[in-house]
Amino acid sequence: MTGVRLREVRKSFGSAEVIRGVSLDVPKGSFGVFVGPSGCGKSTLLRMIAGLEDTTGGTIEIGGRDVTNVEPAKRGVAMVFQSYALYPHLSVFENMAFSLRLARAKSAEVQRKVGETAEILRLGDHLKKKPSELSGGQRQRVAIGRAIVREPEVFLFDEPLSNLDAELRVQMRLELTRLHRQIGATMIYVTHDQVEAMTLADQIFVLRGGLLQQAGRPLHLYDDPANRFVGGFIGSPA
Ligand code: ADP
Ligand code: MG
């Protein structure tokens, strides 16, 4: 079963076509990673899946439903931004409760969902703190928590660890793997970092210049790159 399916997806900004006919399937419940050099179109593609950019052509399906023209809030996706997207004046609890409050969830439900999420992310002792009182890793976990409470079908991550130092990045990668095992939702993670892609992905999707170069399991891409670019990028000669 497919979690996210793209068929011949295209995007132009003015006369520049930056996504040039991308078709791919991210299996339901899997961890997919879009990897490629800066400017290849990773963020644009992710934003199109989220519905934050419209498509110039092609179709996007989530859980078997065509969402190409569906508004973002009704796609069943949640995007995780870098941790600086937290509300500085709100507590950790209220940051995570924010979308539930917007949706007018009952107070008991807010308590329960935020409580469960804090448990998963080991933030239970920090719920009353402001983001400024947290470490970088804790802030990043709050940013992830804000997505979890919405119980999306698909989580979308756009280079969420790029602001963190190297040691913390390694730790957060392990956390993300653990989280994925625990929640079992489809996740799509965008990065320009090959190591991050190799360690996180069930499936890697290599992009270059708005085109999909190859899709496959990390070791498959490593052992059998489709072309020189993939070989050079993933780290074994073609
Ligand atoms: P990546 O995330 O892989 O670094 P992006 O998806 O951000 O790449 O960008 C892909 C290309 O699209 C780049 O050439 C970028 O300059 C261009 N682009 C992205 N967003 C816009 C926009 N809103 N208007 C015009 N060009 C854009
Ligand atoms: Mg980007």
Automatic annotation (TrEMBL):
| MF-aspect GO terms | ABC-type maltose transporter activity; ATP binding; ATP hydrolysis activity
Q: Does the keyword Transport apply?
A: yes
Annotated ABC transporter domain ranges read: 4-234
Keyword Transport tagged: yes
Can you say where in the cell this protein is located?
Cell inner membrane
Q: Which keywords does the record carry?
A: ATP-binding, Nucleotide-binding, Transport
- The record's principal subcellular location, in a coarse class, is membrane
The protein's superkingdom reads Bacteria
Q: Name one GO cellular component term.
A: ATP-binding cassette (ABC) transporter complex, substrate-binding subunit-containing
Q: Which topology term describes how it sits in the membrane?
A: Peripheral membrane protein
Would you identify the family this protein belongs to, as annotated?
Belongs to the ABC transporter superfamily.
Q: What is this protein called?
A: Carbohydrate ABC transporter ATP-binding protein, CUT1 family
Q: What is the lineage of its organism?
A: Bacteria, Pseudomonadati, Pseudomonadota, Alphaproteobacteria, Hyphomicrobiales
